[in-house]
Amino acid sequence: MEPTMPRGVRDTNPIQTITKKSIISVIEEAFKRFGFYPIETPAIENLEMLNAKAYGEENQKEIYTLTGESTGLRFDFTVPLARYIAMNKNVNLPFKRYQIGNVWRKEEPQKMRYREFMQMDADIVGGKEILADSEVIAAAANAMQELQINCTIFINSRLILEAIISHFGIKKDDSTKAIRVIDKIRKLERADIVSQLTQFGIDARLADELMEFISKNDTNEEKLKRISQEIPETASEIGKMSMLLECIRKYEIKLQVKFDPSLARGLDYYTSFVWEFISESENSKVPTLVSGGRYDKLIEAYSGKSIPATGISIGVDRVVDILYNGDKSYFSSNRVYLAYLSQDDYEYSLGVATKLRAEGVYVDMNTTDRNLAKQLEYANALDFSNVIIIGKIEREKKVMKVKNLVSGKEDILSLEEAIKLLKVK
Fold it and tell me: Which residues contact 341 (CB under 8 A, 6 or more apart)?
């Protein structure tokens, strides 16, 4: 039988996996610096949790359900967090948590869009609006800067967008569906979006004017002023947006921040501010790397108690896709291959490997019956730069030969000298 894989999932080779773990480490360190603490929740949740009204009927179609059970795989970490807070009523607020793990969505696979993928989330439950929002945005921005990914941060408020589409004649009952259409603004042609908007009772001319209104390429200040002047009922939310942008500025992040009145985010549980980080490393077609927003009613849907919350989610696999370049430096710089000539040399070689490992040296030791030439061929294939060679002479003198496969230089070293040379900095 020819082995196959399900659509929308993938294996990662050792170098990709090492890259991924390095990225996770950088992001996790950024979260910890901002005072977030880790929790873990199950991959499986009860369907009554996943299908909560606040979650959105559209997204319920993308949940993987388990046959014969009223359970399904988690779609994201926000709903599990809301359930966690509802079940742990004595948690100290504000609760700043981060979580790392895989989530699953039964959607059509595309480039950089998988059915199983890793997310890293940071949320603040019970924090004050604007202060908590700017904190989670800044934490994610710091992670992106550490990874040297050039992003633009797009920010909007769904309340502003709702007021705009109401101003252009879309009824309140249709606003959620219209927002989902507008949320595709970076994926569809303008004419396609206009065509879909006409389904909500406005003519094509007004729909086109709506798209022009929200797509205008002004400065943040110009957009805020124009919207507040032309749609006075947005004044309060425009004021909050100005305060949020100013608060983010005080974090001294280096990424560009843009107010984008077209930004919607597809999930229904967002109540006001929403944001996306779009990478500029490749081209305009690169999907969102970081997303999130404020969800002040989601926890109430589970607990009956109103607790404000806000957070961000980083798509780790998308970050890997952007940063992975096949770099094998881990193999060549941080590891050493230990080769030995005969079985008589095994015990001494194992002792050397054990002592080196105890000192933090990454040692890959021969576990085959290959001769020395084949062992060195293997080390070259995996791009090791240093190889330890042990034979009868080295064993009897309690030393080892260290060969640099790049320069060809060979040294006879004691264990202490080898540790000094090879220890991971």
Answer: 372, 389, 390, 391, 392
Residues 74, 103 contacting (CB under 8 angstroms)? yes
Question: Is a pLDDT exceeding 60 seen at residue 111?
Answer: yes
Q: In whole angstroms, give the CA distance from residue 47 to residue 74.
A: 9
Domains 14-323 and 329-422 share a fold: no
Is pLDDT at 58 greater than 80 in this prediction?
no
Architecture of domain 329-422: 3-Layer(aba) Sandwich (3.40)
Closest C-alpha to 184, from 279, 283, 266, 290: 266
Q: What is the rounded average pLDDT for all residues in the chain?
A: 90
CB burial string 240-266: b at 16+ within 10 A, e below: bbbebbebbeeeebebebbbbbbbbbe
Residue type present at position 210:
L
Burial of 13 (0-12, 13-18, 19+ CB in 10 A): exposed
Domain ranges of the chain: 14-323, 329-422
The two structure tokens encoding residue 185? 């603004």
Angle between helices 14-33 and 131-146 (to 10 degrees): 140
- Cβ-Cβ contacts under 8 Å for 379 (sequence gap 6 or more): 337, 339, 387, 405
- pLDDT of 398 over the 50 cut: yes
Q: Is it the case that residue 60 has pLDDT exceeding 50? A: yes
* Matching residue, tokens 């003519």: 203
State pTM to two decimals. Answer: 0.89
139: which 2 tokens?
Answer: 């934490």
The DSSP element (H or E) to which 159 belongs, if any, is helix 158-167
Q: What is the pLDDT of residues 31-41, one digit of tens each?
A: 999 999 999 99
Peptide bond into 94 cis (omega under 30): yes
How many Å separate Cα 408 from the centre of its chain? 41
Average pLDDT estimate for 121-148: 97
Name which of 192, 198, 157, 156 is nearest 177 in CA terms. Answer: 198
* Cβ atoms of 185 and 193 closer than 8 Å: yes
Domain 14-323 bears CATH identifier 3.40.50.1980: no
Angle at 198 between CA 211 and CA 194, to 5 degrees: 35
